[in-house]
Design brief:
- With 140 residues, this protein is of the alpha+beta class.
- It has one domain (9-139): Immunoglobulin-like, CATH 2.60.40.420.
- It contains one helix and nine strands.
- The chain has one helix at 9-41, and strands at 46-49, 62-65, 70-71, 74-77, 82-87, 96-97, 112-116, 121-126, 134-139.
- The longest helix has 33 residues, at 9-41.
- The relative contact order is 0.19.
Length: 140
């Protein structure tokens, strides 16, 4: 006669970890979608992607996030152009306009954020995690 055995604790812990990671990934994707919707409602268009996902605006002007800095720190573009920020740091960063014109979600390494500038002006921005990271977009 076979006796009933409790599943091993190791198998239970492994399954629980897998379910937790899956739920976390779903929540992260939902937050990215909500952030993109809110940003689009504020004027201009945005694109946020996670690591390894290409964007259609990648061929336009870019700002690279590397060594806890934006490169270039100041970028001059024309009205109607889309700027894409690319995180090449191993840590997360975001892009937050000082006057609220745009705001990305937290971008993991390899993540991107794009914003189309539809009005001339000077747009100062920073990283909310690393306040010493400062940048400026000049739109002519």
């Amino acid at each position: 006669m076979k006796s009933w055995r409790r599943p091993s604790d190791q198998a239970h812990r492994s399954t629980t970890r897998w379910h937790g990671k899956l739920a976390g990934a779903g929540i992260a994707l939902m937050l990215i979608m909500v952030a993109a919707t809110v940003l689009a409602a504020c004027g201009g268009s945005t694109t946020t992607t996670s690591a390894g996902t290409a964007t259609s605006t990648a061929s336009g002007p870019q700002v690279i996030m590397k060594n806890t800095a934006y490169d270039p720190a100041t970028l001059t573009i024309k009205v109607g152009q889309t700027v894409t920020w690319v995180n090449q740091d191993p840590m997360q960063h975001d892009v937050v306009a000082n006057k609220g014109e745009f705001k990305s979600s937290l971008l993991a390494s390899g993540g991107t954020f794009s914003f189309k500038f539809t009005q001339a002006g000077t747009y100062a921005y920073y990283c909310s995690i690393h306040p010493n990271m400062l940048g400026t977009i000049i739109v002519q």
